[in-house]
Write a structure and sequence with these properties.
- By secondary structure, the chain is an alpha/beta fold.
- Helix content is 42%, strand content 20%.
- It is built from 9 helices and 12 strands.
- Helix 1 runs parallel beside helix 2, helix 6 packs antiparallel against helix 7 and helix 7 runs parallel beside helix 8.
- The protein binds adenosine-5'-triphosphate and fe (ii) ion (FE2).
- Fe (ii) ion binds next to helix 3.
Amino acid sequence: MAEGWVLGIESTAHTFSFGLVDSNGIPRPSVSKIIRPTTGGIHPREAADHHVVESTEIFSKILADNDLLPSDISVVAYSQGPGMGACLRTGAAAARAISSHLNVPLIGVNHCVAHIEIGRQQCGCEDPILLYVSGGNTQVIARLDGRYRVLGETLDIGIGNMLDKFARQHGIPFPGGPVIEQRALEWIGKNPEATLEGLELPYAVHGMDLAFSGIMSAANKLVSDGMPFEAVCWSLQEHAFAACVEVAERALAHTGKKEIVLGGGVACNERMRQMSSIMCEERGAESYCPPKMYCIDNGTMIARLGWLEMNHGRVTSLIQSGINQELRTDQTSITWP
Ligand code: ATP
Ligand code: FE2
């Protein structure tokens, strides 16, 4: 069992975040800074520069918030991948510096697996299907033979990137997902009897996989053809979320599992949560939604996975501590129950 606190450092993309778990693996809320470009998307180098500038303040604040001294930290975990190279390197460099300075072990962890493990810890579910819906990733995942296997995933862009891009084309800066949720709510609030007639979008399900760029182009066309923007936001959510939930339902059917846990930033969306709950209720399964602060990227989930790995005997030597932009969910072996 790890003694003392595990520090987790998240830096895969726009978010630089430090979080903690105690020696029993119990999480503490993260301290995070998110780069929000006023125009365009996330530029990896600009995001990395942002993370460097913010690092000292974030580190001081997470210690102060928890009444800790640096010497209370006994392990440093960080996101080793997948993600943007420049951002990952910043987090890894901070982790190496802190671990060398404190002379404590370093653990590089898989960001996608961290989303799953914080969800399991928060929701108390045993063996769920993970519906992982973030900016960069959209995957349906199940544990099998010591790995989290990807049963289905996006063939083009992540669902969150699709929402952000659609929003950006209509003048809404990053992150667009929450604004689309608000606009959709406004539409359905004013039109409780609304139907999808005239607002149809392409079907995003391809076997067990998904694709979102066609939906996004079609949604843009609806707006340029004169459909109200709020109505299109609503339709976009209905189509894209139903597609994800449909693949998750098939995953339940194929594997015989009985639980779904949501993860990733898009899992903050109330309509996504509701659709997953309705599907599970209809088939006698359980849908779990972690608190929103643990759906978005956060350092605490990295600390939690670091704690699990540490307690199962894994550490990362300095020589192995390079980042891996392309790290896949199923490349990490799962040695804990
Ligand atoms: P990953 O590296 O796992 O792909 P990420 O870098 O995309 O993660 P997250 O914090 O998991 O980071 O997710 C951010 C995404 O979540 C953005 O695309 C954002 O628009 C979306 N998002 C956040 N809140 C909501 C919401 N309420 N409704 C829809 N989308 C949301
Ligand atoms: Fe993430």
